[in-house]
Amino acid sequence: MKLKLVFEDLIKEEKNSEEYRNYKKLKLEEAKKNITVEDRVFLARYKNRPKAMDFIKNIIESPLFFHGDRKYADDKAIVGGVGMLGDIPVTFLGIEKGRGLEESLAANFGMPHPEGYRKVQRLARQAEKFNRPIICFVDTQGAYPGVEAEERGQAEAIASTIYEMCGLKTNIISVIIGEGSSGGALALSVCDHLIMMENSIYSILSPEGFASILWKDSLRASEAMEVMKLTSEDLLKFKVCDEIVEEDLAVELEDFEENYNRLKKSLKKNLEILGDIPMDKLLQNRKGKYRNLAWD
């Protein structure tokens, strides 16, 4: 994994010099020309990659966060609320992994519980009531598979969220910002327009899980990455995603600013396009999109 070595090398360097900035630019330009599937997976999981909260704070203006599912508890793996995208009021939803040990533990490393998906349903119904578009930021290795989650109806929570999103009478755009794995990601990916950040991945499960199930050997994850066709380029070709937002390689969190700007521009453009489509036609297109995927 050459890109990982490049990033590790750049992190060790003294960062406050012009020499470093020129060196970094040269190394990243060179690395991007020879990027592999394994590099894409590394980037999707990279520790300094922005999380859902970073995207929300850099794209949504004046965000107001809501909490709880009104049935059991507040799941910190799911963040959501209302805010502005330019002059458009929107509802935003995100799967948050957290940064650092304390945040990651609180967010259960981005693995939502049933109450998280029920929070999604609550805010989605509210968005429909007030005719607000929904923007989802997806970054998860999957829903939490623990006993307590199953006892509280994890499968039902995911299935009913998918069902709700299919028939929701408002515009929905989903963005895969890092990892998008399993039904835990799909629940927030049923939408009218699916965007993938260039270095994100989207799949039925993790490469390690795929290798463990198919070949009984998680060490064959690199081989699984090639077989699974989980990169943005592959999924655009298969018409699973509708658009790729180009990324500059970002070693540090602050290097991501231009990528936020590109995504924000895309979101505004697509909300305008979706806003011109009659609701009956929008719902027909949304359902047809997923039926066609299954058929193909």
UniProtKB/TrEMBL annotation:
Keywords annotated in UniProt: ATP-binding, Coiled coil, Cytoplasm, Fatty acid biosynthesis, Fatty acid metabolism, Lipid biosynthesis, Lipid metabolism, Nucleotide-binding, Transferase
Subunit: Acetyl-CoA carboxylase is a heterohexamer composed of biotin carboxyl carrier protein (AccB), biotin carboxylase (AccC) and two subunits each of ACCase subunit alpha (AccA) and ACCase subunit beta (AccD).
Reaction it catalyzes: N(6)-carboxybiotinyl-L-lysyl-[protein] + acetyl-CoA = N(6)-biotinyl-L-lysyl-[protein] + malonyl-CoA
Gene Ontology terms: cellular component: acetyl-CoA carboxylase complex
Lineage: Bacteria, Bacillati, Bacillota, Tissierellia, Tissierellales
Biological role stated in the UniProt entry: Component of the acetyl coenzyme A carboxylase (ACC) complex. First, biotin carboxylase catalyzes the carboxylation of biotin on its carrier protein (BCCP) and then the CO(2) group is transferred by the carboxyltransferase to acetyl-CoA to form malonyl-CoA.
EC class (word): transferase
Protein name: Acetyl-coenzyme A carboxylase carboxyl transferase subunit alpha
Family to which this protein belongs: Belongs to the AccA family.
A biological process term (GO) from this entry: malonyl-CoA biosynthetic process
Species: Anaerosphaera aminiphila DSM 21120
Domain (CoA carboxyltransferase C-terminal) ranges: 23-273
GO molecular function terms noted in the UniProt entry: acetyl-CoA carboxylase activity; ATP binding; carboxyl- or carbamoyltransferase activity
InterPro entries on file: Acetyl_CoA_COase_a_su, ClpP/crotonase-like_dom_sf, COA_CT_C
Entries under SUPFAM superfamilies matching the protein: ClpP/crotonase (SSF52096)
Chain coiled-coil ranges: 246-273
Pathway: Lipid metabolism; malonyl-CoA biosynthesis; malonyl-CoA from acetyl-CoA: step 1/1
The keyword Nucleotide-binding belongs to this UniProt entry's keyword annotation: yes
Subcellular localization, as worded in the UniProt entry: Cytoplasm
